[in-house]
UniProtKB/TrEMBL annotation, chain A:
Residues 29-298 form the Septin-type G domain. Its main location: nucleus. Residues 378-393, 402-414 have a biased composition (Basic and acidic residues). It is found in: Chromosome, Centromere, Kinetochore; Cleavage furrow; Cytoplasm, Cytoskeleton, Cilium axoneme; Cytoplasm, Cytoskeleton, Spindle. It comes from the Eukaryota. The keyword Chloroplast does not apply. This is Septin. The lineage of its organism: Eukaryota, Metazoa, Chordata, Craniata, Vertebrata. Belongs to the TRAFAC class TrmE-Era-EngA-EngB-Septin-like GTPase superfamily. Septin GTPase family. It comes from Oncorhynchus tshawytscha (Chinook salmon).
TrEMBL record, chain B:
Residues 316-394 form a coiled coil. It comes from Oncorhynchus tshawytscha. The keyword GTP-binding applies. This is Septin. Residues 400-413 have a biased composition (Low complexity). GO terms for molecular function: GTP binding. PROSITE patterns: G_SEPTIN. Keywords: Coiled coil, GTP-binding, Nucleotide-binding. Residues 395-422 are annotated as: Disordered.
Length: 422, 422
């Protein structure tokens, strides 16, 4: 990458207008947000929602969760469309009536987890289609967890719930009905809660650090006040000529939007005015991605769990994974083929050699025998020749002898005739 | 690909200012912090002023030497720059087609361009399909806009232009521009533009249309659509006109001012490409061109959505099924290869056995011959022996006779001698 090129002179390009283009398009598209509220009944959850969004989300026609008596934990959602300053927001509020209300609350968090996971699953399925369409984002972007204002510390249920959900959704713990605590009690309570949260390594939603000095001061202030202690009200009261939302007591009015009375304003500003987008981003980039990678890595087609995936396999897309496997297999086959080929050649060579040896051996033997035979023949010839010679010699000799005899007898006859012989 | 149309939501009024109208600002802040990225592809023959136009558009001098005309094929050279204008950071990638239109045979010219575009889509797809992925920090290299440079012949589009644009129109947003338009007179230009537009329409080439669905920009966009293709002139040289330094090209007969809308459409191009529709170009690339690529790629690999509305589609199940099918295929291939080897071995063995048999037969024959020879020899031997014996007998008999005769002759001789002596 080249170092940052600064534009020359007074040259105007115009891409500084990009943010406006983004703004324009986002307004046209509209926004959506899903907020989940969890806590025992009677902690003022519905009232707080109505106060936050300055509307009667829960009214006569659409009663809030506390007015709906449930035996088991339900998860219900209400969807409303609100408009402000040209900006349209589709707001989904998810209730969990019955949470923590039973005698035995073991696993009361399970329906909540199931709901969150099922929304992630819907998103995953929609995102994974071949033919993708525009899809709504119904994932839970934020979970407000209501802590009862006991003043002591977290209950085991609080700890259990937050531990199980902190890696699935942005958890923002709130101290409900804070107008039952004095400021000092509230401070102690907050300290205790944060201590316990740290002890149990619960990761609640963290505000991202911003480079801007101004904002980071603000952020630090918010962080110091966590968990936020809130008060909600559906009633507007007149105080010193001002109309405020508040709770009327004989001893005074607890004002919802008074920063000295409670942290409601901090919550509203943070949740809606400054960090709504970040809550969605963290949900998308962290919680959803965790869900997705867990889901994709774990299940094999038999529905069993495959924990054998290596790190390499995780950072590669399944298509690339298949390609890799295909290549490996082709190599393996090639190797197998060459090996088999080698073994085959070797065996053939062996056999051929054996045959050759055997042939040579037989040849040799045959040669041997032939030579032998030839030698014998020669011998025979020799003998025969010798015999012939001897025979002819002897026959010649015999003939001479015969001749001699003949001559001798002839002479004798002659002599006889001559009277030489008496 | 998110849609927020408030489907299934009931509209509720707000009793005051809630504050979510800051959402577009929150989104914009996030984008500005993250930085923007934009990728332009310049397609056109060598010498049409592509680099100069980029320099002029972005008011800076990008790297690179002017290319020669002797390139053997079309190569794509890409350079990435970090630009900043006020608080907006832009990572700009400019891709140039080097050697386009220089070859004698231009049939394959478009191929390397299509390949390049597809490669960027593929990279994104791979990232999107990974199990552990980091999409929000991924450097998007997909081409957002393709400026197609048309030579200022004044007549019509070249066939290379039509062929190339037809191949690219389903893969990238094409913005056709008439390059070096200071070579064409105004009247010729109007005719030229009409001819080009009609040729594009009659050949079914889909060029990018500036969007008219958003009222804020509908009017200007629709007007500009009517000015396409933009006739541009590029120059980084500055000339003094009046008391200002302006970008211009100086001729003996006058000065062509780049930013004078009477002289050329440069300002229109800059306005449309950068100031007004940069974000839309990015969006179209992602939601239309990339989706098409992705869909085709997945279908090619055999993936398909099961039941669009009832059963949710599970990409991961399909992967598993695909993978098993594919592994099964590989197993089969392996088996086949093994079988083939077994077959070969069998055949070779039979061959060798045959050879062995032949060898043995050969030697059996030889053996037989040898036996016969031996027999003959034996017979000959026998007959010789017989003859020898016969001769011996004869000889013995003759010798016997002789010795007898001799004895008798001896006595005869003796008698004779005796008689003689007497």
């Amino acid at each position: 990458l080249k170092p940052t090129l600064c534009l020359r002179g007074s040259g105007y390009v115009g891409f500084a207008n990009l943010p406006n283009q983004v703004y324009r398009k986002s307004v046209k598209r509209g926004f959506e947000f899903t907020l989940m509220v969890v806590g025992e009944s009677g902690l003022g959850k519905s009232t707080l929602i109505n106060s936050l969004f300055l509307t009667d989300l829960y009214s006569k026609d659409y009663p809030g969760p506390s007015l709906r008596i449930k035996k088991t934990v339900q998860v219900e959602q209400s969807k409303v469309l609100v408009k402000e300053g040209g900006v349209q927001l589709t707001l989904t509020i998810v209730d969990t009536p019955g949470f923590g209300d039973a005698v035995d609350n073991s696993n009361c968090w399970q329906p909540v987890i199931n709901y969150i996971d099922s929304k992630c699953e819907d998103f995953l399925n929609a995102e994974s289609r071949v033919n993708r369409r525009l899809m709504p984002d119904n994932r839970v972007h934020c979970c407000l967890y209501f802590i009862a204002p006991s003043g002591h510390g977290l209950k085991p249920l609080d700890i259990e719930f937050m531990k199980r959900l902190h890696d699935k959704v942005n958890v923002i713990p709130l101290i409900a009905k804070a107008d039952t605590l004095t400021p000092e009690e509230c401070q102690l309570f907050k300290k205790q809660i944060m201590k316990e949260i740290q002890e149990h390594k619960i990761q609640i939603y963290e505000f991202p650090d911003i480079e801007d000095d101004e904002d980071s001061k603000l952020i630090r202030k918010i962080k110091e006040r966590m968990p936020l202690a809130v008060v909600g009200s559906n009633v507007v009261i007149e105080v010193n000529g001002r109309k405020v939302r508040g709770r009327q007591y004989p001893w005074g009015v607890a004002e919802v939007e008074n920063g000295e009375h409670c942290d409601f304003t901090v919550l509203r500003n943070m949740l809606i005015r400054t960090h709504m987008q970040d809550l969605k981003d963290v949900t998308n980039n962290v919680h959803y991605e965790n869900y997705r990678s867990r889901k994709l890595a774990a299940v094999t087609c038999n529905g069993g769990v495959d924990t054998s995936k290596t790190k390499n396999q995780m950072t590669r897309s399944p298509l690339a994974q298949m390609e890799e496997e295909r290549r490996e297999h082709v190599m393996k086959m090639k190797k197998m083929e060459t090996e088999m080929e080698q073994v085959f050649e070797m065996k053939v060579k062996e056999k051929k050699q054996k045959l050759k040896d055997s042939e040579a051996e037989l040849e040799r033997r045959h040669e041997q025998m032939k030579k032998n035979l030839e030698a014998q023949y020669k011998e025979l010839e020799e003998k025969k020749r010798h015999h012939e010679e001897e025979k002819s010699n002897w026959e010649a000799q015999q003939r001479i002898l015969e001749q001699q005899k003949l001559d001798a007898s002839k002479t004798m006859e002659k002599n006889k005739k001559k009277g030489k012989i008496f | 690909l998110l849609k927020c149309d408030g489907e299934g939501a009931r509209a509720v009024p707000l009793a005051g200012h809630v504050g979510f109208d800051s959402m577009p600002d929150q989104l914009v802040n996030k984008s500005v912090n993250h930085g923007f990225c934009f990728n332009i592809l310049c397609v056109g023959e060598t010498g049409l002023g592509k680099s100069t136009l980029m320099d002029t558009l972005f008011n800076t001098k990008f790297e690179g030497e002017p290319t020669q005309h002797n390139q053997p094929g079309v190569q794509l050279k890409s350079n990435t720059y970090e630009l900043q204008e006020s608080n907006v950071r832009l990572k700009l990638t400019v891709v140039n087609t080097v050697g386009f239109g220089d070859q004698i045979n231009k049939e394959d010219s478009y191929k390397s361009i299509v390949e390049f575009i597809d490669t960027q889509f593929e990279a994104y797809l791979q990232e999107e399909l990974k199990i552990k992925r980091t999409l929000h920090s991924y450097h998007d290299t997909r081409i957002h806009a393709c400026l197609y440079f048309i030579a200022p012949t004044g007549h019509s589009l070249k066939s290379l232009d039509l062929v190339t644009m037809k191949k690219l129109d389903s893969k990238v947003n094409i913005i056709p521009i008439i390059a070096k338009s200071d070579a064409i007179s105004k009247s010729e230009l109007t005719k030229f533009k009409i001819k080009i537009t009609s040729e594009l329409v009659s050949n079914g080439v889909q060029i990018y249309q500036f969007p008219t669905d958003d009222e804020t920009v509908a009017e200007i966009n629709s007007t500009m659509n009517g000015h396409l293709p933009f006739a541009v002139v590029g120059s980084t040289e500055e000339v003094k006109i009046g008391n200002k330094m302006v970008k211009a090209r100086q001729y003996p007969w006058g000065t062509v001012q780049v930013e004078n809308e009477n002289h050329c459409d440069f300002v229109k191009l800059r306005e449309m490409l950068i100031r007004v529709n940069m974000e839309d170009l990015r969006e179209q690339t992602h939601t239309r061109h990339y989706e098409l690529y992705r869909r085709c790629k997945l279908e090619e690999m055999g993936f398909k959505d099961t039941d669009p509305d009832c059963k949710p589609f599970s990409l991961q199940e399909t992967y598993e099924a695909k993978r098993n099918e594919f592994m099964g295929d590989l197993q089969k291939k392996e088996e086949e290869m093994r079988q083939m080897f077994v077959q070969r071995v069998k055949e070779k063995e039979a061959e060798l056995k045959e050879a062995e048999k032949e060898l043995h037969e050969k030697f059996d024959r030889l053996k037989k011959l040898h036996q016969d020879e031996k027999k003959k020899l034996e017979d000959k031997k026998k007959s010789l022996d017989d003859e020898l014996n016969g001769f011996k007998q004869k000889k013995t008999a003759a010798e016997l006779l002789q010795s007898q005769a001799q004895q008798a002759g001896g006595s005869t001789t003796l008698k004779r001698d005796k008689e003689r002596k007497k």
